[in-house]
Each structure stands twice: as structure tokens, then as C-alpha cells.
Amino acid sequence: MTKKIGVVTGGGDCPGLNAVIRAVAKAAAQRGWETLGILGGYEGLLEPRQFRALDYHALDGLLIRGGTILGTANRGRFSAKVGHGETRQLPKELLDDTKRGMEALGLSALVSIGGDGSLSIAQQMHEHGIPIVGVPKTIDNDLEGTVMTFGFDSAVACATDALDRLHTTAESHNRVMVLEVMGRYAGWIAIYAGIAGGADVILIPGIPFTYDSICAKIRAREAQEKKFTLIVVAEGAREKDADFVTSAGQEANREARLGGVGAVVAAEVQQRSGKETRTCVLGHLQRGGTPTTFDRVLCSMFGAVAVELIAAGDFGKMVAFMGQQVGPVEIAQAVGRLKTVPPNGGLARTARALGISLGD
Ligand code: F6P
């Protein structure tokens, strides 16, 4: 009998999901295996089961296509994230049903492509005896165990392009421009794009900011005849001694929705500095579109190594980027604690060395 594996995408989408799906299905086909794509996240494994065969023709054009052809979910019965990043244990009956779903579909293994939430679930499934391997996805780059998640490079490219565009309009109008980027509690998109896009101020969650410090930077630039200032603010950045800014009420069993800090910063900076200030919220543009070259290669390596792990029966592992090659780490080692930008690490020190204010 032909070996059959499943592939599932969970959590928020990002560029490169389809490229991983393609790589998994292609690498599996090379071994003579079939691949089923599970639709709508893990829910597709439950009755009424929803899936599609990922044969040769189903893979056309997937390398460059944004989003996920399988659909995804970050709510419902398999939602593992609550509040500000906490994880919840799934009920045993749900894990039993999932196991039955795998058996009913004839799947001998599952590739779970997801971030901290989906991979926390993958870990619970592994502990429940479900043969599973993980692939680290998220534009936030906040997973431990891997140097980089796929989707991050594409999101940074989008944010850097936005900064380049804001630069010229800020300069033309002598304005302060505040760009709010995603990234949850980590700050990776903000610091990478901020350095790549020549920002003057970068505000990240790991370094609480003060308005005095931001305005001092604006004044210092004015003194040097630089009449405009570019500020990048991570959605999870917060003023010293203040709480996160959230955009909506907390829904049950869902992670808190960050957003709105850009407008708060802009209003306060305008009021204190007297400079005309505008905000741009990049939002889901960072999650859409085609993956960068780097992400396409990373996704291809991740998919290929995930299939190698299945062939070796090496379950409960996540494929991880280790700088040059991709290899396995325990899923348990990657989930449950966020990888944030170290306040005194190489990126922060580089920013400071270049005269960029980190708002502290
Ligand atoms: O985790 C990816 C991410 O895009 C975060 O950066 C952001 O806070 C969140 O998802 C947005 O989620 P939603 O698509 O549910 O609004």
C-alpha cells in the first residue's frame, strides 16, 4: 500500500505557506508517497473531514503564490492561544478524535505548518501518540529553536518598502511619520525593517519607550537641519510603565489583538513636539503576496527536511533553520516561550551605533 501523509496549515497566514505545501508534496512524491492537504486547519481532520489530494497538478504555481490553498484557522476548537500569549491544554476527547481522523484518512504522519499556537497543538498531539512533524511559520519570527521562521523575510521586505516610500513623503513635507508594523510581542519586523529602511526611531516591545526620548531625537535631527523623522513602532511596543495597546475586545480562547500604538504615539509626538505627524498602519499587507527569494528557498528546505524526518520516523520534531542548513529540533523546545529581540543584542547595538533611537 502507498504511504500517505497529511499536511495542514494553522494560525495566521503568511507568504511561503504554499511553497512549503508544494515542497512537502513534491518530496513525498519522490518517495512514491501520496500527500493529502487537510483543509481549514486541524478542524479538517474531524468529521465531516475536509481534505484534497495534492497530486502533481494541484501544485502548479504554488511556489510564488501567497496565502494557503488549504485555508487556515486561528480560532475554534483547536485554538491553543489565549490572552497575552498563554497556551491552553486541548481536551483529551479532541485529541482522540484527531487520532481517529488520521486513521480514517489512512495517514501515517502529519506535517503541521504553523507558529507558536499551531505547534503547541502539534506538541500535544505528539504527546498523544500522533506521528507529527512541525514547520515553523510566522511573520513575527518569535519561535525559539530556529534562527528564522519562514514568512518573516517577506514581511520585512514589505515593511522596508513601506519605509522607503514614507521616507520621501516625510522629507517633502517636513513631517514625522510613524509606521506601525506587526510582530506581536517580539519586535523583529520593526528592528529589521527599521535598520533596513533607515528609520530614526525604532520602538520594540523589549525596550519600553518614553516620549521625552523620542522627542529628543526629533529635536536633535532638527538641530542638524533634518526636518523630518521616521519612526517604526512594533504593534507590541509600549510606553514605559504602560500596558499594550489593543485594537479590540478580548474574545474567548483567542490571543489578544494588538494594534493602535502607532496612532497613540503619533498623537503624543505631535502634541509634544509641535511637528505635523502622520501614521501608517501596514497591517495585513505584511502577510500577503509572494514570498521573497530567501523565503522560497527556506520553504523548500523546510518541506524537504520535514519529509526526511517522516521517512526516518523522527516525530515530535520541528524543522529549524540553523544558519546554513535545516535540521530537526524538539517541537517542545520551540514553543511556549517567545523569542524576542534581545535589548542588548547585535541588532539593538547596531541600531544604537548608527544613531538610531530605541526610545529609551
Ligand atoms: O502572528 C501573525 C500576526 O500577523 C501578528 O503579527 C498580528 O498581531 C496578528 O497575527 C494579527 O492577527 P489577525 O490576522 O487575527 O488580525
What does this structure look like?
The protein is of the alpha/beta class and 360 residues long. Helix content is 36%, strand content 16%. The protein has ten helices and 13 strands. The strands form three sheets. It has a seven-stranded mixed sheet, with helices on both faces. Helix 3 (116-127) links the parallel strand 6 and strand 7. The longest helix has 22 residues, at 152-173. The chain is elongated, with a radius of gyration of 22 Å. It starts with a strand and ends in a 7-residue tail after the last helix. 51% of the residues are buried.
Present the secondary structure layout.
Layout: E1 4-9, H1 17-30, E2 34-38, E3 51-53, E4 81-82, E5 86-87, H2 92-104, E6 109-114, H3 116-127, E7 132-136, H4 152-173, E8 176-181, H5 188-196, E9 201-203, H6 211-223, E10 229-234, H7 261-273, E11 277-281, H8 293-312, E12 317-321, E13 326-330, H9 331-334, H10 346-353
Parallel strand pairs: 1-2, 1-6, 6-7, 7-12, 8-10, 8-11, 9-10
Antiparallel strand pairs: 2-3, 4-5, 12-13
Helix pairs in contact: 1-8, 4-5, 6-7
This protein binds 6-O-phosphono-beta-D-fructofuranose.
6-O-phosphono-beta-D-fructofuranose binds at residues 12, 74, 115, 138-140, 182-184, 235, 257-258, 287.
Observed structural traits:
seven-stranded mixed sheet; elongated; 360 residues; 10 helices; 16% strand; single chain; 13 strands; four-stranded parallel sheet; binds 6-O-phosphono-beta-D-fructofuranose; alpha/beta
**Poorly predicted ranges (pLDDT <50, ≥5 residues)?**
none
Instruction: Note the run of SSEs as H and E.
Output: EHEEEEHEHEHEHEHEHEHEEHH
- The rounded Rg comes to 22 Å
Major beta sheet, strand line-up: 3-2-1-6-7-12-13
Percent helix: 25-40%
Overall shape: it is elongated
The hetero molecules present are: 6-O-phosphono-beta-D-fructofuranose
Mean pLDDT, as a whole number? 95
Question: Sheet bearing the most strands, described?
Answer: 7 strands, mixed
Q: How much of the residues is beta strand, in percent?
A: 15-25%
**How many helices?**
10
Structural class: alpha/beta
Distance between the termini: 62 Å
Q: How many strands? A: 13
